[in-house]
Amino acid sequence: MLIGVPKEIKNHEYRVGLTPTSVRECVQNGHQVIVETNAGVGIGRTDEEYVTAGAQIVKSAAEVFERADMVVKVKEPQAVERAMLRAGQILFTYLHLAPDPDQTHDLVKSEAICIAYETVTATRGGLPLLAPMSKVAGRMAIQAGAYCLEQPHGGLGMLLGGVPGVDPAKVVIIGGGVVGTHAAHIAVGMGADTWIIDRNPDVLESHWQHFGRSTNSVFSTRDALEKHVLEADLVIGGVLIPGAAAPKLVTAEMVKNMKPGSVIVDVAIDQGGCCETSRPTTHADPTYIVDDVVHYCVANMPGGVPRTSTYALNNVTLPHVLAIADLGAEKALQNDVHLRNGLNVYRGQVVYKEVAQALGYDYTSVEDILKL
After folding, report:
1. Does residue 125 fall inside a structural domain?
2. Same domain, 149 and 294
Protein backbone atom coordinates (compact mmCIF):
# COMPACT_ATOMS: atom_id res chain seq x y z
CA MET A 1 0.00 0.00 0.00
CA LEU A 2 1.14 3.57 -0.66
CA ILE A 3 0.95 5.54 2.60
CA GLY A 4 1.01 9.34 2.51
CA VAL A 5 2.01 11.76 5.28
CA PRO A 6 1.19 15.44 4.67
CA LYS A 7 2.54 18.33 6.72
CA GLU A 8 -0.02 19.45 9.30
CA ILE A 9 -1.49 22.88 8.54
CA LYS A 10 -3.76 23.60 11.50
CA ASN A 11 -2.73 26.72 13.43
CA HIS A 12 0.46 26.02 15.39
CA GLU A 13 0.23 22.28 14.81
CA TYR A 14 3.71 20.78 14.73
CA ARG A 15 3.05 17.06 15.14
CA VAL A 16 3.37 14.63 12.24
CA GLY A 17 1.47 11.46 11.36
CA LEU A 18 4.50 9.16 11.14
CA THR A 19 8.02 9.49 12.54
CA PRO A 20 11.02 8.21 10.57
CA THR A 21 11.04 5.19 12.89
CA SER A 22 7.43 4.41 11.96
CA VAL A 23 8.18 4.94 8.28
CA ARG A 24 10.97 2.37 8.47
CA GLU A 25 8.55 -0.17 9.97
CA CYS A 26 6.07 0.43 7.14
CA VAL A 27 8.76 0.08 4.48
CA GLN A 28 10.11 -3.09 6.08
CA ASN A 29 6.58 -4.50 5.83
CA GLY A 30 6.68 -3.98 2.08
CA HIS A 31 4.82 -0.67 1.80
CA GLN A 32 5.72 2.62 0.13
CA VAL A 33 5.63 5.88 2.07
CA ILE A 34 5.57 9.41 0.68
CA VAL A 35 6.10 12.35 3.02
CA GLU A 36 5.52 16.01 2.27
CA THR A 37 8.72 18.03 2.52
CA ASN A 38 9.38 19.48 6.00
CA ALA A 39 6.52 17.49 7.53
CA GLY A 40 8.78 16.46 10.41
CA VAL A 41 10.45 19.80 11.12
CA GLY A 42 8.21 20.45 14.13
CA ILE A 43 9.54 17.36 15.90
CA GLY A 44 13.14 17.96 14.84
CA ARG A 45 13.18 15.35 12.06
CA THR A 46 14.58 16.25 8.65
CA ASP A 47 13.65 15.15 5.15
CA GLU A 48 16.98 13.32 5.00
CA GLU A 49 16.00 11.22 8.02
CA TYR A 50 12.76 10.24 6.31
CA VAL A 51 14.66 9.31 3.14
CA THR A 52 17.07 7.20 5.17
CA ALA A 53 14.06 5.43 6.70
CA GLY A 54 12.84 4.58 3.20
CA ALA A 55 10.33 7.36 2.42
CA GLN A 56 10.09 9.41 -0.74
CA ILE A 57 9.85 13.16 -0.15
CA VAL A 58 7.26 15.02 -2.24
CA LYS A 59 6.86 18.76 -2.66
CA SER A 60 3.21 19.27 -1.78
CA ALA A 61 0.24 17.99 0.16
CA ALA A 62 -1.63 17.85 -3.15
CA GLU A 63 0.75 15.15 -4.35
CA VAL A 64 0.33 13.22 -1.09
CA PHE A 65 -3.45 13.24 -1.37
CA GLU A 66 -3.39 12.50 -5.10
CA ARG A 67 -1.13 9.45 -4.83
CA ALA A 68 -1.69 7.89 -1.40
CA ASP A 69 -3.98 4.93 -0.78
CA MET A 70 -3.99 5.86 2.92
CA VAL A 71 -3.36 9.31 4.38
CA VAL A 72 -2.02 9.30 7.95
CA LYS A 73 -2.35 12.58 9.82
CA VAL A 74 -2.70 13.91 13.36
CA LYS A 75 -5.38 16.59 13.36
CA GLU A 76 -8.67 16.64 11.50
CA PRO A 77 -8.27 17.57 7.82
CA GLN A 78 -8.77 21.25 7.15
CA ALA A 79 -11.15 22.39 4.40
CA VAL A 80 -8.44 22.55 1.74
CA GLU A 81 -7.33 19.03 2.64
CA ARG A 82 -10.86 17.63 2.67
CA ALA A 83 -11.32 18.91 -0.85
CA MET A 84 -8.44 16.68 -1.96
CA LEU A 85 -9.84 13.43 -0.54
CA ARG A 86 -11.21 10.95 -3.05
CA ALA A 87 -13.65 8.06 -3.00
CA GLY A 88 -12.26 4.94 -1.38
CA GLN A 89 -9.16 6.67 -0.01
CA ILE A 90 -8.37 5.83 3.61
CA LEU A 91 -8.00 8.69 6.09
CA PHE A 92 -6.54 7.76 9.48
CA THR A 93 -6.36 10.64 11.96
CA TYR A 94 -8.18 12.43 14.77
CA LEU A 95 -11.58 13.64 13.53
CA HIS A 96 -13.81 14.76 16.46
CA LEU A 97 -16.84 15.00 14.17
CA ALA A 98 -19.76 15.44 16.58
CA PRO A 99 -19.26 19.22 17.06
CA ASP A 100 -18.05 19.79 13.48
CA PRO A 101 -20.84 19.70 10.86
CA ASP A 102 -18.71 21.25 8.11
CA GLN A 103 -16.01 18.59 8.35
CA THR A 104 -18.58 15.80 8.54
CA HIS A 105 -20.36 17.11 5.44
CA ASP A 106 -17.11 17.22 3.49
CA LEU A 107 -16.01 13.74 4.57
CA VAL A 108 -19.38 12.28 3.61
CA LYS A 109 -19.20 14.05 0.28
CA SER A 110 -15.68 12.74 -0.39
CA GLU A 111 -16.80 9.09 -0.05
CA ALA A 112 -13.49 8.35 1.66
CA ILE A 113 -13.01 5.74 4.39
CA CYS A 114 -12.47 7.83 7.52
CA ILE A 115 -11.15 6.15 10.68
CA ALA A 116 -10.89 8.30 13.81
CA TYR A 117 -8.14 7.73 16.33
CA GLU A 118 -10.37 8.93 19.15
CA THR A 119 -12.99 6.17 18.85
CA VAL A 120 -10.72 3.15 18.34
CA THR A 121 -11.11 0.90 21.38
CA ALA A 122 -9.09 -1.85 23.09
CA THR A 123 -9.75 -5.26 24.62
CA ARG A 124 -8.96 -3.91 28.07
CA GLY A 125 -11.36 -1.00 27.55
CA GLY A 126 -10.66 2.66 27.06
CA LEU A 127 -9.57 4.60 24.00
CA PRO A 128 -5.92 3.69 23.45
CA LEU A 129 -5.25 6.05 20.54
CA LEU A 130 -6.76 9.00 22.38
CA ALA A 131 -5.15 8.20 25.73
CA PRO A 132 -1.59 9.41 24.98
CA MET A 133 -2.83 12.82 23.89
CA SER A 134 -5.24 12.95 26.83
CA LYS A 135 -2.28 12.33 29.12
CA VAL A 136 -0.34 15.15 27.50
CA ALA A 137 -3.34 17.50 27.51
CA GLY A 138 -4.16 16.74 31.15
CA ARG A 139 -0.63 17.57 32.22
CA MET A 140 -0.48 20.67 30.03
CA ALA A 141 -3.84 21.87 31.38
CA ILE A 142 -2.35 22.51 34.79
CA GLN A 143 0.67 24.27 33.32
CA ALA A 144 -1.61 26.46 31.19
CA GLY A 145 -3.93 27.12 34.10
CA ALA A 146 -1.07 28.12 36.40
CA TYR A 147 0.17 30.53 33.74
CA CYS A 148 -3.28 32.03 33.23
CA LEU A 149 -3.72 32.54 36.98
CA GLU A 150 -0.87 35.05 36.89
CA GLN A 151 -2.22 38.60 36.92
CA PRO A 152 -0.39 39.78 33.76
CA HIS A 153 -2.31 37.07 31.88
CA GLY A 154 -5.73 38.02 33.21
CA GLY A 155 -5.77 35.81 36.29
CA LEU A 156 -6.39 36.69 39.88
CA GLY A 157 -2.70 36.61 40.72
CA MET A 158 -2.33 33.30 42.56
CA LEU A 159 0.56 30.90 42.71
CA LEU A 160 -0.93 27.45 42.18
CA GLY A 161 0.84 25.85 45.13
CA GLY A 162 0.87 28.87 47.42
CA VAL A 163 3.73 29.31 49.89
CA PRO A 164 4.02 28.50 53.59
CA GLY A 165 1.40 30.57 55.37
CA VAL A 166 -0.59 31.33 52.19
CA ASP A 167 -3.31 29.07 50.80
CA PRO A 168 -2.73 27.26 47.49
CA ALA A 169 -5.17 27.62 44.60
CA LYS A 170 -8.23 25.37 44.54
CA VAL A 171 -8.16 23.25 41.37
CA VAL A 172 -11.42 21.54 40.40
CA ILE A 173 -11.07 18.79 37.78
CA ILE A 174 -14.34 17.77 36.13
CA GLY A 175 -13.97 14.21 34.90
CA GLY A 176 -11.68 11.64 36.46
CA GLY A 177 -10.61 9.80 33.32
CA VAL A 178 -7.23 9.97 31.60
CA VAL A 179 -7.22 13.78 31.33
CA GLY A 180 -8.36 14.18 34.92
CA THR A 181 -5.90 11.69 36.35
CA HIS A 182 -2.90 13.27 34.66
CA ALA A 183 -4.08 16.77 35.50
CA ALA A 184 -4.34 15.65 39.13
CA HIS A 185 -0.76 14.33 39.04
CA ILE A 186 0.60 17.73 38.07
CA ALA A 187 -1.76 19.71 40.31
CA VAL A 188 -0.80 17.63 43.34
CA GLY A 189 2.87 17.87 42.42
CA MET A 190 2.61 21.66 42.32
CA GLY A 191 0.94 21.72 45.72
CA ALA A 192 -2.56 22.78 44.68
CA ASP A 193 -5.73 22.02 46.64
CA THR A 194 -7.00 19.42 44.16
CA TRP A 195 -10.59 18.21 43.76
CA ILE A 196 -11.86 15.54 41.34
CA ILE A 197 -15.54 15.49 40.33
CA ASP A 198 -16.95 12.40 38.60
CA ARG A 199 -20.17 10.40 38.70
CA ASN A 200 -18.59 6.97 38.30
CA PRO A 201 -18.01 5.40 41.74
CA ASP A 202 -15.26 3.18 40.33
CA VAL A 203 -13.38 6.23 39.07
CA LEU A 204 -13.69 7.94 42.44
CA GLU A 205 -12.50 4.78 44.19
CA SER A 206 -9.54 4.56 41.81
CA HIS A 207 -8.55 8.14 42.55
CA TRP A 208 -8.83 7.51 46.27
CA GLN A 209 -6.57 4.47 46.03
CA HIS A 210 -4.07 6.25 43.80
CA PHE A 211 -3.86 9.68 45.41
CA GLY A 212 -5.11 9.06 48.95
CA ARG A 213 -5.66 12.27 50.88
CA SER A 214 -3.62 14.38 48.46
CA THR A 215 -6.80 14.90 46.42
CA ASN A 216 -10.47 15.19 47.29
CA SER A 217 -13.05 13.24 45.29
CA VAL A 218 -16.68 14.31 44.90
CA PHE A 219 -19.63 12.53 43.33
CA SER A 220 -20.93 14.69 40.49
CA THR A 221 -24.34 16.30 40.97
CA ARG A 222 -25.58 19.71 39.89
CA ASP A 223 -25.24 20.92 43.48
CA ALA A 224 -21.67 19.60 43.75
CA LEU A 225 -20.64 21.09 40.41
CA GLU A 226 -22.08 24.47 41.26
CA LYS A 227 -20.53 24.56 44.72
CA HIS A 228 -17.03 23.57 43.69
CA VAL A 229 -16.87 25.47 40.39
CA LEU A 230 -17.89 28.66 42.17
CA GLU A 231 -15.21 28.09 44.81
CA ALA A 232 -12.51 27.19 42.28
CA ASP A 233 -9.54 29.25 41.24
CA LEU A 234 -8.86 26.89 38.33
CA VAL A 235 -11.38 24.57 36.64
CA ILE A 236 -10.20 21.80 34.30
CA GLY A 237 -12.84 20.38 31.94
CA GLY A 238 -11.89 16.78 31.19
CA VAL A 239 -15.23 15.18 30.38
CA LEU A 240 -15.48 12.71 27.49
CA ILE A 241 -18.30 10.72 25.92
CA PRO A 242 -16.62 8.71 23.15
CA GLY A 243 -17.42 10.15 19.74
CA ALA A 244 -20.19 12.40 21.09
CA ALA A 245 -20.37 16.09 21.90
CA ALA A 246 -19.24 16.87 25.44
CA PRO A 247 -22.05 17.66 27.90
CA LYS A 248 -22.29 21.30 28.97
CA LEU A 249 -21.73 20.82 32.69
CA VAL A 250 -20.52 24.34 33.49
CA THR A 251 -23.33 26.73 32.62
CA ALA A 252 -23.00 30.36 31.58
CA GLU A 253 -24.75 31.28 34.84
CA MET A 254 -22.09 29.43 36.83
CA VAL A 255 -19.34 31.24 34.93
CA LYS A 256 -21.00 34.57 35.71
CA ASN A 257 -20.80 33.75 39.42
CA MET A 258 -17.21 32.45 39.46
CA LYS A 259 -14.43 34.46 41.07
CA PRO A 260 -13.15 37.32 38.91
CA GLY A 261 -9.77 36.26 37.57
CA SER A 262 -10.43 32.55 37.96
CA VAL A 263 -9.52 30.29 35.03
CA ILE A 264 -11.23 27.57 32.97
CA VAL A 265 -9.09 25.21 30.89
CA ASP A 266 -11.57 23.26 28.76
CA VAL A 267 -9.67 20.21 27.52
CA ALA A 268 -12.99 18.83 26.20
CA ILE A 269 -13.08 21.56 23.55
CA ASP A 270 -12.22 19.06 20.79
CA GLN A 271 -15.67 17.60 21.38
CA GLY A 272 -17.35 20.99 21.78
CA GLY A 273 -16.30 21.74 25.34
CA CYS A 274 -18.01 21.08 28.67
CA CYS A 275 -18.56 24.76 29.45
CA GLU A 276 -21.32 26.81 27.81
CA THR A 277 -19.02 29.78 27.35
CA SER A 278 -16.21 27.77 25.71
CA ARG A 279 -15.18 28.20 22.08
CA PRO A 280 -12.10 26.82 20.33
CA THR A 281 -8.91 28.87 20.45
CA THR A 282 -5.41 28.36 19.07
CA HIS A 283 -1.87 28.40 20.43
CA ALA A 284 -1.46 31.75 18.66
CA ASP A 285 -4.33 33.31 20.64
CA PRO A 286 -5.14 30.82 23.41
CA THR A 287 -7.34 32.77 25.84
CA TYR A 288 -10.31 35.08 26.07
CA ILE A 289 -12.34 36.44 28.97
CA VAL A 290 -16.04 36.02 29.69
CA ASP A 291 -17.52 37.62 32.84
CA ASP A 292 -13.98 38.21 34.19
CA VAL A 293 -13.15 34.49 33.90
CA VAL A 294 -10.15 33.53 31.75
CA HIS A 295 -10.95 30.76 29.26
CA TYR A 296 -8.16 28.64 27.76
CA CYS A 297 -9.70 26.45 25.04
CA VAL A 298 -6.91 25.44 22.67
CA ALA A 299 -8.25 22.62 20.52
CA ASN A 300 -4.86 21.01 19.87
CA MET A 301 -3.08 21.42 23.18
CA PRO A 302 -0.61 18.53 22.63
CA GLY A 303 0.54 20.29 19.45
CA GLY A 304 2.43 22.64 21.76
CA VAL A 305 4.78 19.81 22.73
CA PRO A 306 4.97 18.04 19.36
CA ARG A 307 8.02 15.92 19.96
CA THR A 308 6.61 14.24 23.07
CA SER A 309 3.15 14.02 21.53
CA THR A 310 4.16 12.60 18.15
CA TYR A 311 6.25 9.79 19.57
CA ALA A 312 3.61 8.92 22.17
CA LEU A 313 0.95 8.87 19.44
CA ASN A 314 3.00 6.77 17.02
CA ASN A 315 3.54 4.15 19.71
CA VAL A 316 -0.18 3.35 19.61
CA THR A 317 -1.16 4.18 16.03
CA LEU A 318 1.61 2.29 14.20
CA PRO A 319 0.19 -1.23 14.75
CA HIS A 320 -3.12 -0.11 13.23
CA VAL A 321 -1.39 1.65 10.33
CA LEU A 322 0.44 -1.61 9.58
CA ALA A 323 -2.73 -3.70 9.89
CA ILE A 324 -4.63 -1.46 7.47
CA ALA A 325 -1.72 -1.38 5.03
CA ASP A 326 -1.12 -5.14 5.21
CA LEU A 327 -4.75 -6.22 4.87
CA GLY A 328 -6.53 -3.32 3.22
CA ALA A 329 -9.18 -1.26 4.98
CA GLU A 330 -12.13 -3.61 4.62
CA LYS A 331 -10.28 -6.73 5.74
CA ALA A 332 -8.59 -4.95 8.63
CA LEU A 333 -11.94 -3.56 9.78
CA GLN A 334 -13.61 -6.94 9.49
CA ASN A 335 -10.85 -8.64 11.49
CA ASP A 336 -10.63 -6.16 14.37
CA VAL A 337 -13.72 -4.94 16.21
CA HIS A 338 -11.66 -2.31 18.02
CA LEU A 339 -10.37 -0.75 14.82
CA ARG A 340 -13.90 -1.07 13.47
CA ASN A 341 -15.10 1.12 16.34
CA GLY A 342 -12.87 3.83 14.91
CA LEU A 343 -14.73 3.95 11.61
CA ASN A 344 -16.83 7.14 11.52
CA VAL A 345 -17.55 7.74 7.84
CA TYR A 346 -17.51 5.06 5.15
CA ARG A 347 -17.96 5.81 1.45
CA GLY A 348 -20.53 8.54 1.97
CA GLN A 349 -22.31 7.15 5.03
CA VAL A 350 -22.04 8.07 8.71
CA VAL A 351 -21.41 4.82 10.57
CA TYR A 352 -20.78 6.13 14.10
CA LYS A 353 -24.06 6.43 15.98
CA GLU A 354 -23.16 9.37 18.24
CA VAL A 355 -21.98 11.44 15.27
CA ALA A 356 -25.15 10.67 13.31
CA GLN A 357 -27.31 11.60 16.30
CA ALA A 358 -25.39 14.80 17.02
CA LEU A 359 -25.54 16.08 13.44
CA GLY A 360 -28.81 14.64 12.16
CA TYR A 361 -27.46 12.08 9.69
CA ASP A 362 -29.01 8.74 8.90
CA TYR A 363 -27.06 6.09 10.78
CA THR A 364 -25.86 2.90 9.13
CA SER A 365 -24.12 0.33 11.31
CA VAL A 366 -20.59 -0.73 10.47
CA GLU A 367 -21.67 -4.36 10.62
CA ASP A 368 -24.25 -3.76 7.91
CA ILE A 369 -21.78 -1.83 5.77
CA LEU A 370 -19.12 -4.54 5.99
CA LYS A 371 -21.71 -7.32 5.77
CA LEU A 372 -20.58 -8.97 9.00
Report:
1. no
2. yes
The active-site residue out of 106, 198, 270, 336 is 270
96 is catalytic: yes
Q: Are residues 137 and 225 in the same domain?
A: yes
Residues 257 and 181 in one domain: yes
**b/e burial code for range 189-205 (CB count within 10 A of at least 16 → b):** ebebbbbbbbeeeebbe
From 96, 182, 228, 295, the catalytic residue: 96
In sequence order, which ranges of the chain are alpha helices (DSSP H)? 20-28, 47-53, 61-67, 79-82, 101-110, 131-148, 178-189, 201-211, 222-231, 252-256, 306-327, 329-335, 337-340, 353-359, 366-369
- State the residue range of the domain holding 274: 133-299
Q: Which residues pair with 324 in a beta bridge?
A: none
Question: pLDDT tens digit string along 70-118?
Answer: 999 999 999 999 999 999 999 999 999 999 999 999 999 999 999 999 9
Check residue 157 and report its DSSP letter: -
269, 299, 329 - which closes a domain: 299
Total-model pTM: 0.89
Q: Are residues 291 and 353 in the same domain?
A: no
